[in-house]
Specification:
- The protein is of the alpha/beta class and 328 residues long.
- The chain is 24% helix and 25% strand.
- It has helices at 21-30, 54-60, 73-77, 97-102, 123-130, 166-185, 208-211, 220-229, 315-323; strands at 6-11, 34-39, 65-67, 84-89, 107-111, 119-120, 134-141, 151-158, 202-203, 238-241, 244-254, 268-272, 275-279, 284-293.
- Helix 5 packs antiparallel against helix 8.
């Protein structure tokens, strides 16, 4: 790889996380590589885990940034100098061909999942939904396709059972992604790997309030996996009780040898040691935390969930969850 004097980062941190962008930029500072971040107005105000807002974190670590509406040649040209590369991290923009050519094909992306089998967005939510524990961290070249560029470097990851939501998943990968990026910076030369299109899978972005609605026709395990995919750091998968929307956290399996008829699905059949036990079509689930909200998204502390209460997600809500689309 050519000498790097400057990196134009495009994107930012993950939601409610201290990384990975902050860690990548700090590593650049250690290696005397100039840094400039191009970030959108939404991500700049993302909360971090320990440093306040993302904007606060950038200022604290003396990381230069510019808030932009889009990525175009003029924006990139304003920050170009000799030996500059562009590096995408959690970027919502598609990097166009003219920008790739402007950068002499030195445009890279950090994809915190496997390629080509986990292309797109919300990769670890989809992975958790599928019950997969194996994945990769990937740095690849960017081409005009979505996550289709040649792979530069990968790190295999096997998640332990303790990684049961996104927050624990990202916490587990933190040290590995910093090691991977440091290794990328020190590569003298690299051999690219072409992606096998026969093994490719693409999944779109997810929005927790829009898409995280529980279907009570699913089995206990399917509901548990679905809830894990929308759990911390996000609001949680949801359903309804009476006229209120409720959000689940820390869903576990229970009474898996018990047969429940489909008409029992969604019923609270036991409340014990602070857990709510709910019937599904194959076994039960138990939940420690259930958040009840009104139409203005305010928590209703006075609402008491009782034995025999039924959770239900109206069919029209489930249909909307399938219809609602988010751009890449």
């Amino acid at each position: 790889m050519k000498k790097i004097s400057k990196i134009i980062f495009i994107g930012g941190n993950r939601y409610r996380e201290d990384g990975p962008l902050i860690g990548f930029a700090k590593e650049c500072q250690k290696q005397k590589i100039e840094v400039m971040l191009l970030v959108d107005k939404e991500r700049i105000n993302y909360p971090t885990e320990t440093i306040g807002s993302f904007k606060t974190a950038l200022k604290k670590h003396n990381i230069r940034y510019k808030i932009v509406k889009s990525i175009d040649k003029k924006t990139i040209k304003d920050h170009l100098k000799a030996d500059t590369i562009a590096f995408s991290v959690n970027c919502r923009w598609i990097i166009r061909k003219d920008i790739i050519e402007l950068m002499d094909n030195n445009v890279f992306n950090y994809h915190n999942s496997s390629l080509p089998d986990q292309r797109g967005a919300a990769c670890h939510s989809w992975r958790l939904m599928q019950g997969k524990t194996n994945s990769h961290l990937t740095i690849h070249k960017i081409n005009p396709g979505i996550d289709k560029g040649e792979i530069i470097i990968q790190k295999a990851i096997k998640f332990p059972k303790t990684c049961k939501n996104l927050m624990s998943t990202y916490k587990y990968t933190e040290k590995f992604e910093q090691i991977l990026f440091k290794k990328f910076l020190t590569l003298k030369k690299y051999k690219v790997t072409q992606q096998n299109e026969n093994n490719s899978f693409y999944w779109p972005r997810l929005d927790t309030p829009k898409h995280g609605l529980i279907n009570w026709n699913w089995t206990a395990n399917e509901i548990k996996l679905f809830c894990s995919a929308f759990d911390a750091p996000f609001k949680g998968a949801s359903t309804f009780i009476d006229k209120y929307r409720v959000f689940f956290h820390d869903v576990e399996l229970a009474d898996m040898k018990t047969y429940f008829h489909p008409f029992q699905a969604g019923l609270v059949y036991r409340i014990k040691n602070g857990f709510y036990y709910i019937a599904t079509t194959k076994g039960g689930i138990k939940i420690k935390e259930i958040r009840v909200e009104d139409k203005k998204n305010k928590i209703i502390k006075s609402f008491k969930i009782k034995l025999g209460h039924r959770f239900i997600t109206p069919s029209e809500e489930l249909s909307l969850a399938l219809i609602n689309k988010n751009k890449y």
